[in-house]
Write a structure and sequence with these properties.
Elements: E1 10-16, E2 19-25, E3 44-47, H1 66-71, E4 76-78, E5 81-88, E6 93-98, E7 124-129, H2 150-163, E8 171-176, H3 178-187, E9 194-198, H4 204-209, H5 214-223, H6 230-240, E10 243-248, H7 252-255, E11 266-271, H8 278-281, H9 283-293
Parallel strand pairs: 6-7, 6-8, 8-9, 9-10, 10-11
Antiparallel strand pairs: 1-2, 1-3, 4-5, 5-7
């Protein structure tokens, strides 16, 4: 969708035979790209302001924008999951990260990574996982066709750990916001790993249906895929493995009143930072937690290949 530079956020409505899918075009942008929207047929797309609609692709195949393809040129794409591998020295530990939302709106390259290599830890294997589904990601609840992508990334992680002679106890799984919820889902398939969650949402369905990402709820409903119980996942993991939860104070949408939760292996970290900045403000603290869990002699490096 092309428009003049928007002075405020604007609604875009996709009507698929009476089923309405709602998107939000971002203030300050004049190009708004929304991809991989499951529909029954070519829908009717409307917007209150003057605009030009360009259909980029219609059909069964996933569409990836040219900019996203260029950014992902060095990424691994296997069994419909996308990730990047980084290695520093001879790995004695592994850090696996999961991506946050870039933000609402129609981005030319919507699929981000939380680049694990920026932790700059010596003797470390890094796996930075993307969430490349639907318009801007799916919390790894579904791929573009209603299939569960979690087993595929679990298989990738398990195989890669084996290649480097590492076990799950050598692993830290880290995520922020959407990535924190994905980290929780994936962590369930490993034993005795360290789990670090920043701005975790205790109720994904409530969050999605009450934010500009409600188009994801529409896609999941259309494909008959239900939301996982994020609170139950959190509680289960915090009882059975070392879990660190960094949360923004007064972030009711994410916390859902669970700030005083306790569990056998849970440590909590209230933060004055905003939801999206929790991981940024506590980056050094997170790095220290990983070092304490998986100590090596030289912990800081200048570059990663």
């Amino acid at each position: 969708m092309s428009t003049k530079k928007l002075e405020m956020n604007q609604a875009i409505v996709v009507n698929d035979g009476g089923r309405e899918i709602h998107f939000l075009a971002r203030k300050g942008d004049n190009q708004h790209i929304f991809t991989n929207v499951p529909v029954t047929a070519m829908p009717i797309v409307s917007m209150a302001l003057p605009h030009t609609l360009t259909v980029l692709s219609v059909g069964a195949d996933k569409y990836v924008t040219p900019l996203q393809e260029r950014l992902d040129a060095n990424a691994c794409n296997e069994n419909n999951v996308r990730y990047r591998i980084g290695v520093q020295g001879k790995p004695k530990r592994a850090v696996i990260t999961f991506a946050h939302y870039k933000g609402f709106g129609g981005w030319p390259a919507p699929y981000t990574v939380l680049d694990a290599t920026k932790l700059a830890l010596a003797d470390t294997l890094y796996i930075s996982v993307q969430d490349p589904y639907f318009t801007a990601g799916s919390y790894f609840i579904s791929d573009d066709y209603g299939n569960d992508p979690v087993p595929a990334i679990v298989a990738v992680i398990s195989r890669t750990l084996e290649e480097y002679g590492l076990s799950s106890s050598d692993v830290t799984i880290l995520g922020s916001s959407k990535g924190a919820n994905i980290a929780g889902l994936v962590s369930q398939f490993f034993e005795d790993n360290q789990l670090i969650l920043c701005a975790y949402s205790m109720d994904i369905e409530y969050r999605v249906r009450n934010t500009p990402f409600r188009h994801l709820a529409s896609a999941l409903d259309f494909l008959g895929v239900s939301f996982p119980d994020a609170l139950s996942v959190f509680q289960k993991e915090a009882r059975r493995k070392e879990t660190h939860w960094f949360y923004a104070i007064r972030d009711d949408l994410a916390n859902q009143g669970q700030e005083y939760m306790t569990a056998d292996q849970l440590t909590t970290y209230p933060s004055q930072a905003s939801h999206s900045n929790v991981i940024v403000e506590h980056w050094d603290e997170i790095r220290t937690l990983i070092d304490r869990r998986h100590p090596v002699l030289d912990t800081r490096v200048e570059s990663v290949r």
